Amino acid sequence: MIVEYIRYKVPEARAQAFEAAYGTAQESLRASPHCLGFELSRCHDAPDHYILRIQWDSAEGHMEGFRKSAHFPPFLAAIRPYVPDIEEMRHYDVTPVRWTR
Predict the structure, then answer these.
(1) Degrees to nearest 5, angle at CA 41 with 64 and 4
(2) Long-range own/partner contacts, residues 66-74 (CB < 8 A, 24 or more apart)
């Protein structure tokens, strides 16, 4: 498994539309067998900052499987207006240092 983090800075005036766009885009993520889960979080302290966390089966599953599938074009169409708002987009390997209650 690999985790993709995408950091966005979205002005308050566009926040509701941004969240609605991901409401639409999530259907493509749910439909992909390579996507294991996701969450969109909004910063409490700086409400114009968001982080999208997506769990993929692998980097290849994301880059080759999802991005070259029929699920990607509708995903990109939904979020395309917010691509310029991306501050960082990277894949991270999960370490054994973790805990959940």
Answers:
(1) 25
(2) 66/32, 66/34, 66/35, 69/32, 71/28, 71/29, 71/31, 71/32, 72/28, 74/24, 74/25, 74/27, 74/28
Domains along the chain? 2-93 (3.30.70.100)
Verdict on whether the full-model pTM lies above 0.90 = yes
The model's pLDDT over 20-46, given as tens digits with 9 standing for 90+, comes to 999 999 999 999 999 999 999 999 999
Identity at 8, one-letter amino acid code: Y
Hunting for tokens 């917010």 — which residue is that? 82
Mean pLDDT of the residues in the chain: 97
